[in-house]
């Protein structure tokens, strides 16, 4: 469609249409061309990476339920990595500790903990991804290669059989490094992410120790995925 046709049809300004088309292209919903936009050539959507803000509004009850379970598995004086994600961001609200060392590559997790003296807080640094609020790349990876963790909690976008996926390869690399350096490896996914796929496979499910999810996971799916990992829900 042409921008001029959209302006007439929707009775809004040219600037509004161009801004909205840019936002839709950023979400991989269309392709902008000179003077307008067209649908994707293949007629279907590629894997769509949602922003942190968009993820916050999805399945909030499940996110809080999972955050409580994560908090229950963190104890005093442990060194813990909390990864990026709208679920893990909520963990701070449910922690009842005197002291723990928290390492994260998420600016949103960092913001939750930064004024609380009970926690020794470390932000990895690295290349900032504004879409998810996470730090990735060589600086973050090199730092995490040197860190021993008692526990790591890593959010995932999709799980399919023994394969674990997310939407970005740079985030997948640091997540894999973190999990490999942790004594106890926890993957985090709500029940909507089972039997699904995303862009980048970064881990095998049977290499993790635990998978934390919500109570809406069906008995059938719990039985299936328990063949690879211990499920906490």
From TrEMBL:
InterPro entries recorded: Carb_Metab_HTH_regulators, DeoR-like_C, DeoR_HTH, NagB/RpiA_transferase-like, WH_DNA-bd_sf
Family annotation (PROSITE patterns): HTH_DEOR_2
Residue span, HTH deoR-type domain: 1-39
Superkingdom field: Bacteria
Keyword terms, alphabetized: Repressor, Transcription, Transcription regulation
GO molecular function: DNA-binding transcription factor activity
Any Pfam family the entry gives: DeoRC
Matching SMART domains: DeoRC, HTH_DEOR
Role, per record: Repressor of the lactose catabolism operon. Galactose-6-phosphate is the inducer.
Name listed for the protein in its UniProt record: Lactose phosphotransferase system repressor
Organism: Atopostipes suicloacalis DSM 15692
């Amino acid at each position: 469609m042409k921008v001029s046709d959209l302006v007439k049809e929707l009775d809004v300004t040219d600037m509004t249409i161009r801004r909205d088309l840019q936002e839709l292209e950023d979400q991989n919903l269309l392709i902008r061309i000179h003077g307008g936009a067209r649908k994707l050539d293949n007629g279907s959507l590629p894997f769509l990476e949602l922003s942190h803000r968009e993820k916050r509004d999805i399945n909030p009850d499940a996110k809080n339920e999972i955050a409580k379970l994560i908090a229950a598995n963190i104890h005093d004086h442990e060194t813990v990595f909390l990864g990026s994600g709208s679920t893990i961001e909520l963990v701070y609200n449910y922690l009842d500790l005197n002291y723990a060392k928290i390492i994260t590559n998420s600016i949103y997790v960092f913001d939750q903990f930064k004024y609380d003296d009970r926690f020794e807080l470390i932000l990895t640094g690295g290349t900032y991804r504004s879409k998810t609020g996470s730090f990735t790349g060589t600086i973050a990876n090199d730092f995490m290669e040197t860190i021993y963790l008692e526990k790591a909690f890593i959010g995932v976008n999709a799980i399919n059989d023994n394969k674990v996926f997310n939407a970005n390869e740079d985030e997948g690399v640091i997540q894999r490094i973190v999990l490999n350096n942790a004594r106890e490896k926890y993957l985090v996914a709500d029940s909507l992410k089972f039997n699904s796929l995303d862009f980048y496979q970064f881990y095998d499910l049977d290499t993790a120790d635990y998978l934390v999810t919500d109570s809406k996971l069906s008995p059938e799916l719990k039985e299936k995925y328990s063949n690879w990992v211990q499920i906490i829900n």
